[in-house]
Predict the 3D structure of the following.
Amino acid sequence: MESNTKGIEELAINTVRVLSADAVQKANSGHPGTAMALAPLGHVLWSKFLNYNPKNPDFANRDRFILSAGHACMLQYSFLHLTGYDLSLDDLKNFRQLNSKTAGHPEYGLAPGIDVTTGPLGQGFANGVGFAIGQKHLAARYNRPGYKLFNYNVYAIVSDGDMMEGVTSEAASLAGHLQLGNLIYLYDDNHISIEGSTDITFNEDVSARFRSYGWHVQDLPDANDIHALELALINAKAESQKPSLIRVRSLIAYGSPNKSGTAGSHGSPLGAEELKLVKEFFGFDPELSFHIPKEVAKYYKEKGERGITYEKKWDELFADYRKKYPELAAEYELARDGKLPEGWKDQLPAFKASEPKMATRQASGKVLNAIAGSLPNLIGGAADLSPSTETTLKDFDSFTAENRAGRNFHFGIREHAMGSALNGLALTKGIIPFGATFLMFSEYMRPPIRLAAIMKVSPIFVYTHDSIGLGEDGTTHQPVEQLASLRSIPNVTVIRPADANETAQAWRVAIEKKGGPTVLVFTRQALPVLDQDKFGKATGLEKGAYILSESSSKPELILMATGSEVALILQAQEILEKDGISTRVVSMPSWELFEQQNAAYKEEVFPKAIRKRLAVEMASPMGWHKYTTDEGAILGMTTFGESAPAEDLYKHFGFTPANVVDRAKEVLNK
């Protein structure tokens, strides 16, 4: 294609189409059709609307871009390369290969300019709601007259598949309720999924649905009409009270003579011969691959360089802000850098053994409220369960459409969207987010928990009602397999504290933790506060497991447990010691933290010479075998629970001091 026969914009758009198709073909894997169809959308965004700086992808006031239709990632990779990010043409050629920056779906931390890992459909859509909340909250806390430090928008490209996923409905409802006018989503309405036309499963009026959610909706009939796209985006930016959805009708694999408009271009390469026809259609040399005309390279490079000036102006604004509001500036910079205020840990409460029994969920609430004043960037809430999960920050307001400075979030009965929004918040530097529900309902949140672990970001997931101990609500609400399955996810740290003091330490660890999410697991039922002088100090929690109560002589048996069962094995230890059986009690609130300790510490807690061991946990026994050894045993749950008062359930399933003693003696007599 000669630049003197067609405008530079058309040449640029078609270059992205061909570049995307080339990369998929070389990888012999991927989704070329959507990238080809949406090149005009990407062009308008990266050349005219997005504020970004390729030289500093993490620039604080950049617009966020989310490709929720992550299968179209070659679209994003192409624009990142062309606008000057550290993503080379060789990286594009290495698409979907081992150790490549250009993975099969966008991955945060792998390629520069990727704001969030997407892949499972609907996740990016819901992440954007968290990003939008984060912007509104930062602006409310730090912006001042004449200093709009945080006024960025959150853009996303979403697909038919995103629209079918349930999490999208949850997140869209929440965004509309909160009037997140900084959300601007482009919906690729191409009517194609892997199985064929979406008519076989999906014929609802999406625009009407989103209008009912409270969104500002525009309908565009042609993705190739870049003038109409520009006008729609201008309208969306002007709408400050409602999130915006721009529904764009596109033709998948536009430019492919035989595969456009078909499912054949959605999940597989076009094929060598079809790709040549595509290049001929756009006026490119069919024998050249990964060809970028010089004028296109220059055009996009200049677009990317605008961001250097944009960030420089922001830096100057922040420098003036620092002079006028030094305390706020220092607070933000500390939080942005992932650091914590001096002395915040001094606010952690200490609980005395003389205090009444206390559920760890109640202790958690006391801890949260004790530290909240010292941690202004700690914000969160629950999925309609704050009274039950004890997660209300009592001295602070709620985040609402009218009050963006509030620190209490009401996610509604939308656990899945809550988890995804927490990931968006966790990716907003300067915020420590938490979200709460019952442990059983972590099942609704599994995708965002896993994605947080993949991204190595650190939202805090709070789960209460952690066992059959919740009682009468019965089988459907009593978790059994959840602890084992959460522990199986790489980069997730699960902490199940035994009492109020371990709970305080669990929050300390969670707030300081980096490199992945922390799952805090708390009881509904009241537990005794363990005597810090008589037993091991709760600060041992940071090592995952510690000797809580030592035998009166050289131990011949180790009892180990987490959570509420620690008090149980302490009672059993007392009986065993009276029977002349030297017994060590180990509190083991976090397997993951324990595995991070050195070999000497592990040997100190679990000496190889003491092979008679019993683990006690009201959950699936899966995984405990590693610590009990071949001469030990596990008292756990191998069935679902029952509906009954907790004390009756303990007797029924054998979680009593007498049964623990009997099981321990069986281990010794093997």
Remarks:
- Confidence is low (pLDDT under 50) at residues 1-5.
- The longest strand covers residues 183-189.
- The CA atoms of residues 588 and 646 lie 23 Å apart.
- The two ends are 82 Å apart (CA to CA).
